[in-house]
Amino acid sequence: MKILSWNVRGLGRPSKRHLVKGFICSVRADIVCFQESKFEDLHNSTWRSISGSRLNSFEFLLALGSTGGIIIAWDSSHISSTPNSQRNVLNYYRILKPS
């Protein structure tokens, strides 16, 4: 299992998203953790432009103004999430054993 953690310092520019997507695909990470995404909102279509189809599940905490923003994404064939009732708190995750 490969885990990628990266302070991306913003993902607003399409050229930066393309660079990040290429790197994610090249390392074939199962879990990706981005800090400083600087997104004030994140839609599925925007996430797909960054991750492709392999990292098909994600959670995020929004940036406050021009600082912060966290995205955690994963391949749902290896990881499952447990719902969390607290707002603005990322879920807890459990790694599935390979079958």
Quick gist of this model?
The protein has 99 residues and is of the alpha+beta class. The chain has helices at residues 14-27, 44-51; strands spanning 3-7, 31-35, 57-61, 70-74, 79-82, 92-95.
CATH homologous superfamily label: Endonuclease/exonuclease/phosphatase
- How much helix is in the residues? 10-25%
* Whole-number total of structural domains: 1
The shape, in one word, is: globular
Strand order of the largest sheet: 1-2-4-3
* Rg of Cα set: 13 Å
CATH architecture: 4-Layer Sandwich
Q: What is the typical, i.e. mean, pLDDT?
A: 82
Q: Could you spell the SSE succession in H and E letters?
A: EHEHEEEE
Count of separate DSSP helical elements: 2
Could you say which structural class the secondary elements and strand pairing correspond to? alpha+beta
CATH class type: Alpha Beta
Keywords: Hydrolase
EC number: 3.1.11.2
Protein name: Exodeoxyribonuclease III protein
Enzyme class: hydrolase
